[in-house]
Specification:
By secondary structure, the protein is an alpha/beta fold. It has one domain: Uracil-DNA glycosylase-like domain (Uracil-DNA Glycosylase, subunit E, 3-Layer(aba) Sandwich), CATH 3.40.470.10. The chain contains seven helices and seven strands, in the order αβααβββαβαββαα. Strand 6 and strand 7 form a beta hairpin. The longest helix has 20 residues. The structure holds iron/sulfur cluster. Iron/sulfur cluster binds next to helix 1 and helix 4.
């Protein structure tokens, strides 16, 4: 049973019937896959160590929906985890498997929509409904300083989850805004489509993370 106050949906969360049915069909087709709402990826040091939360859009069908770990199993993870390791926000080696031993450092990763949507496209009602879990996910980290949203949908849902107006805090790649005492960074999503089409280059993505790493370092040094 799903606990609406919890940051993590139940394995059979029924709140979005279309997504629930889509997952049910894939459970039949690929019983060895994870095929459920994908939980937030946490560092081993626990919630109190998290200063950066990364919010993606939704699990990829053959990525997180298959493996059960955000951004694991498809192209988007190669760029994301490679960049996190380079900036000291993750350690180990990313091998695109949940048992690869990769650990986050002061960082957590979640999705605005926890269930895989058909064609990677959640509808507005599903995005709104899954804020039921995004809100308490943001609230669960007592030392959170920054959020990075990947793509405009994740950005807008995060802004709403923070109780702010989307029109007041518009999405912009490389943007940094203040929302409820948290620095809200935003980037184009690191999807294969965006990198193949040149919307997002590796340099652009790394640049966003360098800014975040510098911000967090500055926070640590502040009295
Ligand atoms: S997308 Fe979120 S709210 Fe909708 S069924 Fe999945 S876990 Fe539940």
């Amino acid at each position: 049973m799903t606990d609406a106050a919890s940051p993590e949906p139940g394995h059979d969360c029924p709140l979005c019937p279309r997504l629930h049915d889509f997952i049910a069909a894939w459970r039949e087709r690929e019983p060895g896959w994870f095929n459920a709402p994908v939980p937030t990826f946490l560092p081993p040091e626990g919630e109190g160590s998290v200063r950066l939360l990364i919010v993606g859009l939704a699990p990829g069908l053959r990525g997180a929906n298959r493996t059960g770990r955000p951004f694991t199993g498809d192209f988007a993870g190669d760029l994301l985890y490679g960049t996190l390791i380079a900036q000291g926000l993750a350690r180990g080696e990313f091998k695109a498997r949940p048992d690869d031993g990769l650990e986050l450092v002061g960082t957590a990763i979640t999705n605005a929509v926890r269930c895989v949507p058909p064609e990677n496209k959640p509808v507005g009602a599903e995005i709104a409904t899954c804020r039921t879990f995004l809100r308490p996910t943001i609230a669960r980290f007592p030392n959170l300083r920054a959020i990075l949203t990947l793509g405009s949908i994740a950005h807008q849902s995060t802004v709403r989850a923070l109780g702010e107006r989307v029109a007041a805090l518009p999405f912009r790649h490389g943007g940094r805004q203040e929302a409820g005492g948290i620095a809200l960074f935003s980037s184009y999503h690191c999807s294969r489509y965006n990198t193949n089409t040149g919307v997002l280059t590796q340099e652009m993505f790394v640049s966003v993370f360098k800014e975040i790493a510098a911000f967090l370092k500055n926070q640590t040094q502040a009295p």
